[in-house]
Amino acid sequence: MKILHIFRAEPDETVKDIVVSTTNGDKSKTVELYSGEIDWSRLVDDIFSHDKVICWW
Amino acid sequence: MMRTTELVQKQIQILADIPNWLKKSFQMACCRHMPAVTMSAGISETANSKGVIIMSKVAVLIKNPEQQYEGLRSSLGMLLYNTEVQMFVLNDEIADMDEAYEDNMGFLDEMEGERFSNNKANVEKYGFKYASVEQIGELLRKADLVIPF
Amino acid sequence: MAGKLGILVSSDKYLEYVVNLTEAARDKGREVEIFFTGKGVLLTQSPDFTRLVGKARMSLCDVSFRALGLEGDVPGFGFKDFATQAKNAEIIKNSDRYLVF
After folding, report:
1. What CATH class does B4-148 carry?
2. Is C30 within 8 Å of A48 when comparing Cβ atoms?
3. Which residues of B touch C93 (CB under 8 A)?
4. What residues does each domain of chain A span?
5. What are B51-97's pLDDT values in tens digits?
6. For A4-42, how does the pLDDT look when each residue is reduced to its tens digit (9 = 90+)?
7. In the predicted model, is pLDDT for residue B39 greater than 60?
8. Interchain proximity A21–B136, CB inside 8 Å
9. What are residue B58's DSSP bridge partners?
10. What is the reported pLDDT for B54?
């Protein structure tokens, strides 16, 4: 399963731990919206090309 | 967030007035119009042994105490639409266990939603099932959709 | 192009993200449907909210709207778009992908 993790803000330790156990070795990609440098068109492609998308805090 | 007591009480009353058999009938009536198997939001719908179409799992994850009630309301809405729901309250004890929260929590239980927390006070005082952060992650893996509040 | 994007807006912090994502999805031919709940309904009062009008089907939780002291019209919203949590569940069911802001 391919998982896309989108972070609206910088994750705290709880979120990081949950992300690790949620991913558990599956193929994954992360997008940090708070970085400010987002290719939104590419993000749409990523959303629909991954099996599961989680938009974290 | 301020809760309009009158509106919330009306909502609770509406839910309370619906007997369980009618809630289930409503869910089954909705299901008759659904295609046999579809994929949506990565959520697969499958038929149970009685031929009733059910949606798979949604995990509602609540970290911000200010969002605890909103997460509960959303969980209830999904349960009414024949979704299997697991609600997770992370880290903090329920901030405001008032009548509205308590009643809606009861409805969630009645409608066979599950609620978990890694906060032991929630387990001891309010009947949440305990799950560590690691266990929560494992449960989220099995969910079709994860909704962080 | 097939593929519908559902968006739940429960926070009042990320209007810019929602607008950018919606515009990008529409540019790629994706249908977008948005549900505002909790503090997310406050975004309907923002001047930038109108950037979403015509680009996505939108609805909101009427209980949240009233609980936060809001009233009156919202740009792009009809009467039936002041909805309930059941509407959110319907959007989840009918979307191919679902995000939360």
Report:
1. alpha beta
2. yes
3. 40-41, 43, 55, 81, 83
4. 3-56
5. 444 567 999 999 999 999 999 999 999 998 878 999 999 999 999 99
6. 999 999 999 999 999 999 999 899 999 999 998 899 999
7. no
8. yes
9. B85, B145
10. 52
Which of the other chains make 3 or more beta carbon contacts under 8 angstroms with chain B? Answer: A, C
| pLDDT at site B124 | 98
- Domains of chain B, by residue range, sit at 4-148
CB B118 within 8 A of CB B140: no
Cα separation, B74 vs C27, in Å, equals: 30
Q: How many CA atoms lie within 13 A of A35 on its CB side?
A: 10
Distance to chain A for B85, nearest Cα, Å: 16
Q: Helices B5-17 and B99-110 meet at what angle, rounded to 10?
A: 20
ipTM surpasses 0.90: yes
The torsion angles phi and psi of A54, rounded to 5 degrees, stand at: -120, 125
**The two three-digit tokens of residue A48, written as one number:** 């629909």
